[in-house]
Design brief:
single chain, 324 residues, FAD/NAD(P)-binding domain, 24% helix
Length: 324
């Protein structure tokens, strides 16, 4: 069985950063991911632009050069491929972690391809794999999408966009400009205050002009192959519909954390318990990195403010190894 000082679950930017710090510290490590490299970024909309500037997305001292004020998804994919190559990181892609048992310093990690022993585990799993579901009749229909790639397929289609935050607004505007007939359904009385300040006037103007129809304080109650039913303050409506784009957000999968005995705070975000100085969870030898640290509050940690998690984690592991 292969033995490592650290097994890192997740090959996103923060998982890669942890691998880089481990390599710099002379610790043996393995990064595992059930998908491709930076799988979450790969699943972003095809023409997405980041909120952050390129320097705030850098890891491992590798410069991120963008041709635009803010980098695109395609540039980010190229950059993180270059980081993985430059550092010659030990990564196993398309290898799903199925079970982690044991305790420090002898965890056993079982995957779709084999088993590994690790003295420490770093969970850098992100949150993009588990969308918030509508939990209504018809959500399983193929016309319902929880991920958005690009606007072209929705040309001259009647689409409903569900949500009030940045993803929903971006999808509504992009599909509208590619010729879709767009209706937004929003639970709240208004769009989210977190909508990008340079985008908010655009969507508000489209709604005011009637170019994008919006129902506030409303929600979908049923989806059929050709229609949707919407409960509004004025009553129930039935709308002709070809596609539902449910941009309702995503949540971390806490399954492995629970199986490892990690404790959670009794708060609305189900925040995992961890030491902010080391990022070690309540379970010795299990560390948390990146967005998973915020629990259901997925807008707390980003690449730019969680890159330092890698430094804290590897420093803690290295110091503990010296003591032992």
């Amino acid at each position: 069985m292969n033995r490592y000082d650290i097994v890192i679950v997740g090959a996103g930017p923060i998982g890669l950063a942890c691998g880089i710090e481990a390599k710099k510290a002379g610790l043996s490590y393995l990064i595992l991911d059930k998908g491709c490299l930076v799988n979450s970024i790969y699943n972003y909309p095809r023409y997405m632009t980041f909120f952050s500037t390129s320097d705030k997305l850098e890891i491992g001292g590798v410069p991120f050069i963008s041709h635009l004020p803010k980098p695109t998804r395609a540039e980010a994919l190229e950059y993180y491929r270059r980081v993985a190559q430059s550092w010659d990181l030990n990564i196993h892609l398309y290898e799903k972690v199925e079970e982690i048992i044991g305790q420090a310093p002898a965890f056993t990690v079982s995957t779709s391809r084999g088993q590994y022993q690790a003295a420490n585990i770093v969970m850098a799993t992100g949150f993009y794999d588990a969308p918030y579901l509508l939990n209504i009749e018809g959500e399983e229909l193929p016309k319902v999408r929880h991920y958005f790639e690009e606007a072209h397929p929705y040309f001259r289609q009647n689409i409903v966009v569900v949500g009030a935050a940045n993803s929903a607004v971006d999808v509504a505007l992009e599909t509208f400009r590619k010729g879709a007939h767009v209706t937004m359904v929003v639970r709240e009385p208004a769009l989210s205050e977190t909508v990008k300040y340079w985008v908010k006037p655009d969507i508000e103007n489209r709604i005011t002009a009637g170019e994008i129809k919006a129902y506030f304080n409303s929600q979908l109650t049923r989806i059929t192959p050709t229609t949707v039913e919407v409960q509004t303050p004025q009553g129930k409506l039935t709308l002709d519909n070809d596609f539902v784009l449910a941009m309702t957000g995503y949540k971390p999968d806490f399954t492995f954390l629970e199986s490892l005995g990690v404790l959670f705070h009794d708060d609305e975000y189900r925040t995992p318990v961890y030491d902010e100085h080391t990022n070690e969870s309540s379970t010795p030898g299990v560390y948390l990195a990146g967005v998973v640290c915020g629990g259901l509050k997925t807008n707390k940690w980003f690449i730019e403010n969680s890159r330092e998690h890698a430094v804290l984690i590897i420093r803690s592991i290295k110091e503990r190894k010296k003591v032992v």
